[in-house]
Design brief:
With 277 residues, this protein is of the alpha/beta class. Helix content is 17%, strand content 25%.
Length: 277
């Protein structure tokens, strides 16, 4: 749904960390950890009855480019940043952590987002072992006390849904009980495709940009005052600054993408989104 730069070419049975290669068997991957950030991050309260209560109403996506987001209003706008890309290749899992700097103000809620890609040259095995290995790789990116949430971005095809469900169930089991688990979702998943209804996630963010053939139906649904059929899709929406949508149900958390990256000039657009919420 949101596309980072392409990951490195396929290698042997490895998890790749930046420029170095770490040889790890799938049986041992559950013990792997990779601390990512240096900053002190917002702590999630384990006593919260609603895992999503700690997230602000507006969150910007920071993808694979250098981002200086210190201009964002402290505490009012969160950041879901690409923490790394997990590539499934054959029966292996490759991990590419974020390569570009991310600067935020102290107190900014941070969400670690993992992008999952399939190596087209080596179709993924989609086995239970590979699901567990991918889950462990995602967990390694978010292995720092204080992240506000973990988010997964994967355009799962029909043939990949069972695998994705297994991965998310394993990831939910490994995460702290109070840690929110978010996924991005094709808008069609939230309309007439109930396969995500049983997933162990706190929110599925309908991506209301670059929708392709579903765009007309989705826009018509919203313009007529309709809503997505699944409760998990009614917590938030994913928007892009170059494809504004005003006919949105009220009270939704807004994840904002900006194709050219973020700068102080985007503050008026963010303020407008807060007003329309």
């Amino acid at each position: 749904m949101i596309r980072p730069h392409s990951p490195p070419a396929a290698g042997k049975t490895i998890i790749a960390l930046g420029a170095s290669l770490l040889l790890i068997s799938l049986a041992l991957v559950a013990g792997f950890r990779h601390p990512l950030a240096r900053a002190r991050l917002m702590r999630v309260s384990a006593s919260s009855g609603n895992r999503l209560a700690s997230l602000p109403p507006t969150i910007v996506w920071a993808w694979e480019r250098p981002e200086d987001l210190r201009f964002l209003p402290a505490g009012r706008v969160g950041v879901s940043f690409l923490a790394g890309t997990v590539t499934l290749s054959g029966d292996t899992v490759r991990l590419q952590p974020r390569r570009n700097a991310l600067q935020v103000r102290k107190g900014t809620p941070l969400i670690a987002c993992a992008r999952i890609e399939i190596d087209s040259a080596h179709p993924a095995a989609l086995s239970s072992d590979q699901a567990a290995a991918a889950s462990a790789a995602i967990l390694s990116l978010a292995n720092l006390d204080g992240f506000a949430a973990v988010q997964v971005d994967f355009d799962a095809a029909v043939s990949e849904r069972s695998f994705y469900g297994s991965l998310l169930r394993d990831l939910r089991r490994r995460l702290p009980p109070a840690m929110p688990l978010s996924i991005t979702a094709l808008a069609s998943w939230c309309m007439d495709d109930s396969w995500i209804a049983g997933l162990p996630v706190d929110e599925a963010v309908p991506m209301l940009f670059r929708m392709g053939p579903d765009a007309e139906d989705v826009r018509l649904l919203l313009a007529q005052g309709g809503d997505f059929s699944l409760p998990v899709c009614r917590e938030s929406v994913g928007l892009s600054t170059d494809e504004p949508i005003r006919d949105l149900p009220p009270g939704r958390r807004r994840y904002m993408f900006r194709p050219e990256g973020w700068s102080p000039s985007a503050l008026p657009a963010l303020a407008s989104e807060e007003q329309h919420r």
